Amino acid sequence: MSLRLIYDSRGAATVEATVVAESGARSSVGAPSGASTGTHEVRAWPEGGVPTALEAFRRWGTPTLVGLPVDDQARVDAALHAADGSRDFSQIGGNTATALSVATAEAAARERGIPLWELLQRPGVPGTAFPAIVGNCLNGGRHAIGGPDIQEFHAVARGPPADAIRGALAVHAEVGRRLKAQFPKLALGRGDEGGWVAPIDNVEAVELLAASCTAVRDQLKVDVTPGLDLAATEFYRDGRYRYHGHTVDTEGQLDFVTKLVERFGLTYVEDPFEEEAFDAFHRLTEAVGRKALIVGDDLYTTSLPRVLEGDRRHSTNAVLIKVNQVGTLTDALATVDFARAHGMVPVVSHRSGDVPDGWLAHLALATAASGLKCGLLGGERVAKLNELLRLGAPPETP
Ligand code: PGA
Ligand code: ZN
User: Fold this and answer.
1) Which residue from 186, 378, 387, 397 has the highest number of Cβ atoms inside 10 Å of its Cβ?
2) Nearest CA residue ID for atom 2, ligand 1
3) 352 CA closest ligand 1 atom index
4) Considering 193, 274, 275, 380, which one is annotated as catalytic?
């Protein structure tokens, strides 16, 4: 097992783990990293960042990991926790653990000659249920300075991967066309996840997204609807949600989001409230949970105790899964299994800083995730879409 420093899609340093099985089967996996991180995530890196993570690995890596069988994921992941010794991976870095954990699984799959999704497949999950593509078309918030307060505006495209991906990409292109028509003189930018950035307000942006979805639905006959990740913790302070120009309390936010779902037919709403608002999530799920996935990201941070609390308070009908929020596949899959057993569906997700690896598509298939949230443009996003295409159908030619 070894680590090397590589760069992510934001040009930030991260690590790539290489795991070699006894048979010689090997895998290299890079760690993604977030910008609008939740308070309850494990620490991405030890104090001192990537250089300290590499330095630490030189001490603990060989004694801890060499000789462990790659097909015993639970044991490898337990060894990562033991090497760290803290509760939040603050000593070795949750991102170090994630890269090692996923590379272990991929090496094990290669050793057995099976695809990764089959190795990770959950009990009772068919392996033929394809996720909706949750694809970022327009950016705001912390991922795109100069745009709306809401962080992400998504095309949610359902159906076989080839149709869903074509549909979601068409919405991205349609949003771009409409923005160019609206701002003919403006140099339009793109945010960290490849969505457009333009100086429009929140409701205008949802309107534009919804109209683009309708146009693509009519043209291509694909099932594509609008969705949002508000990442509301980012603009919440002292009891109020602070939009450019006005602020609202929790009641006001509940009213605003409920009306957006109803008026624009949103089918996906992530983090509409700040990360401790279990009860506000519950009230929104009660109001519109039959029409839309209400998804906890910063609320849960993929952490089992947080999802237990969400279940107790009936907060959401969906849980976002980001492996590096907890640091190992074993932890992330325990959360997936609990969520599903308690009536909440998983949606698997990239991070805003990511690397061109495709394993997330396998995780989506293995967990029968309701969504694969991996963006649409940029090599690190397309890598995941293309992997899902490969898993979705045989090649077009013999
Ligand atoms: P992050 O944000 O990867 O920057 O944390 C993505 C999200 O909020 O879903
Ligand atoms: Zn989010």
Assistant:
1) 387
2) 36
3) 3
4) 193
Start-end of CATH 3.30.390.10 domains in the chain? 2-114
Query: Residue 150 carries which DSSP code?
Result: S
User: In which residue are the tokens 């949003």 written?
Assistant: 175
> CB under 8 Å to 152, separation ≥6 — which residues?
136, 138, 139, 140, 141, 143, 193, 195, 228, 229, 231, 270
SS3 179: helix
Q: Does ligand 1 come within 6 angstroms of the Cβ of 174?
A: no
The DSSP symbol for 207 reads: H
Active-site residue (options: 322, 373, 380, 384) = 322
For 40-80, write each residue's pLDDT tens digit: 999 999 999 999 999 999 999 999 999 999 999 999 999 99
On whether the CB atoms of residues 320 and 302 are closer than 8 A, the answer is: yes
Read off the pTM: 0.98
Whether 225 contacts 265, CB under 8 Å: yes
pLDDT digits (tens, 9 = 90+) for 172-226: 999 999 999 999 999 888 999 999 999 999 999 999 999 999 999 999 999 999 9
- As its CATH architecture, domain 132-392 has Alpha-Beta Barrel (3.20)
**Domain 2-114, what architecture?**
2-Layer Sandwich (3.30)
Beta bridge partners of 98: none
193 is catalytic: yes
Copy the structure tokens of residue 107.
């090496």
- The residues of the chain that CATH labels 3.20.20.120 are 132-392
Q: How far is the CA of 142 from the centre of ligand 2 (A)?
A: 11
Q: How many Cα atoms are found within 13 Å in the side-chain-facing hemisphere of 131? A: 30
- Candidates 393, 345, 389, 322; CA nearest to 125 is 345
pLDDT tens digit sequence for 320-369: 999 999 999 999 999 999 999 999 999 999 999 999 999 999 999 999 99
Distance 349 CA to ligand 1 centre (A): 9
Q: Is 100 helix (H, G, I), strand (E, B) or coil?
A: helix
Contact 347, 307 (CB under 8 A): no
Confidence of residue 125 (pLDDT cuts 50, 70, 90): confident
